[in-house]
Structure formats: structure tokens, C-alpha cells
Amino acid sequence: MTLVETDPPAPQAADPAEASTAPFLLHRVRVARRRRLSDGFMRVTFTGPTLHRFADPGLDQRIKLILPSGEGSLDALPLVDDWYGAWRAIPDDLRPVIRTYTTRAVRPAAREVDVDLVVHEPCGPAGRFAQDCREGDEVVLCGPNRGCAAGAGGVDFRLPPSTDRVLVAGDETALPAVARILEGLPGRVRGEVLLEVPSALDAAQLPAAPAGVAVRVLARDGAEHGSLLAPAVRAAAGRLLDAHRGEEPEDVDVDAGLLWEVPGDGAIARSDGPFYAWLAGEASMIKALRRMLVAELGVDRRSVAFMGYWRKGRAEGD
């Protein structure tokens, strides 16, 4: 018998995502399928070889969707831990577009992530992607890392353990987050969930709420944005609170800064309060709702999480 010497097989390069303990990871993914949920929403399912590393804490987990710009390519963005620094170093005309979303469903074993995208006119880059994407189109997702022992962060709904009354309110951009929050609410809480959307059909697929939580869908049907949510929040808070005048909240210029405060995230959280509010949507509307709760109705500001998801007339990053 003749023995023939052969070179040993070359060692396979380790997947950097497997070894990384960074809070967030970039994933090169492609569109697996998309489904029209309503005139205002498109569900896009992404798949990719590293999505088994995508953590799913539920609730309002934030992720980033990174899209190629008109002139640029996703190849310009390296899949490294300091991805944001690398992104900023890309020339403006080639830099990929970043938009923030909430995961609607994560299936690590199937290596799939669902994201519900708002579709409206006029369309920005993400809206055009939602309308025009096809199976196989590539994007990059930035999501929480299952390998990060401390937890990645990006979850802003933080219900204190002793709190049993909750108010959740938002516009259509908050609908995917509200859906996940409904799925994660403990059965002990009672409260109200208020959603102002263009059409009632936009909220038709909301999950069931716990027995003590009422869900109210406010269909604008052409009314001015925010005009239905403000009186509904006031009425709901009156049902849930013993009203008294509270402290005047710090003023925030929504055109100059980010309207975003989460108790416990660089702020002092109230861990023993009976009431917790979560507000998300257009920044000027959320600012007014926050002022109503804190200054007019006496809610402790440490019991209110508020997020300006977008600003009228401004794209994310402007």
C-alpha cells in the first residue's frame, strides 16, 4: 500500500460574531419574505447566518436597520465592534442610511428576525425599502448580542416590580414596540394602552392584553396627528391616578436635542411607585404628553419613560 502525503486542511477562520461580547452585533442579512399588514405597515422577515446570536429580551428592544445609500454600498461598512465609528468615517455620499426600529419577532433557531416598517407618503429611504424590497435584497441589522453577559441594553420599558398600574401611549411608529410590550406585560397589572394610528386596520393584529388592561385604538381617519391621543391620555390618566399638581418638567427643545428619558438609564428611577407611563412617537407630541402627566396631573417624573421616535420634517440623524 502506498501512502500519499497531503497537506492538512486549512483551519477555518472563527466567526467574529461567535467570540464577540460587544453589546450589539452587525449582521449581514437578506430579505426572506415580506407581507403587507395594512396600508400603513409592511412586515419584512430577514434571515442571515449569524442571527442565532441575535438576543431577544422582548418588550421595546431597539435595533438598527442599515440600508445602502443611493451611491454607496454596504461593503463600505465593516462588521466590527466599533461599527458606528467606522460608519461615521465613510464619506457622506457613500455612507449607508441608518434607521431605528423595534423587533417584532426573533427566531434564533431559524435565524430570522421580523421587523414591521411604517409605510407612508412621502417616503424616506426606509419607506422606499419597505415598499420596494424583494426576496434576496441585502441589508445590515444591528441587534443585541446573546453573548453579552451584562445584556445589550436598548429596552426602555422598565416596569418596576411593585407597580401595578400602567399607561402606554404612542402613535403608529410606536405600534411594533407596543405590540411587544403587550406580549410581555405581567398579568397582575391593570391600565390602558392607547394607540393613535392612521387607520384602525393598522392595529388589527395587536396581541391580546392581560385581563386588566384596556387597549384603545384611535383611528385618525384624516384628523390631525396627535389630536386624538392627547385627550385620550388625559382621560386615561384621570382613571388611573389621584390627580394633583406635580413639578414642572425640564424643558427640551425637540428641534435641537433628542427627546428621550428612561428612568433608570442615567436617570433616577422610582422603584416603589404605583404607576408607570411609557410614551413614544413624534417628539413634540410626546413632549406635550409628558408635560401633561408630570406638571398638570402630578405624576412623578421618575415614573415616566418618554421617547421621541421621530420629529416632523426631520429624518433620523439630521
UniProtKB/TrEMBL annotation:
<dbReference type="InterPro" id="IPR039261">
    <property type="entry name" value="FNR_nucleotide-bd"/>
</dbReference>
<dbReference type="InterPro" id="IPR017938">
    <property type="entry name" value="Riboflavin_synthase-like_b-brl"/>
</dbReference>
<dbReference type="InterPro" id="IPR013113">
    <property type="entry name" value="SIP_FAD-bd"/>
</dbReference>
<dbReference type="InterPro" id="IPR007037">
    <property type="entry name" value="SIP_rossman_dom"/>
</dbReference>
<dbReference type="InterPro" id="IPR039374">
    <property type="entry name" value="SIP_fam"/>
</dbReference>
<protein>
    <submittedName>
        <fullName>Siderophore-interacting protein</fullName>
    </submittedName>
</protein>
<feature type="domain" description="FAD-binding FR-type">
    <location>
        <begin position="24"/>
        <end position="151"/>
    </location>
</feature>
<dbReference type="Pfam" id="PF08021">
    <property type="entry name" value="FAD_binding_9"/>
</dbReference>
<dbReference type="InterPro" id="IPR017927">
    <property type="entry name" value="FAD-bd_FR_type"/>
</dbReference>
<dbReference type="Pfam" id="PF04954">
    <property type="entry name" value="SIP"/>
</dbReference>
<dbReference type="GO" id="GO:0016491">
    <property type="term" value="F:oxidoreductase activity"/>
</dbReference>
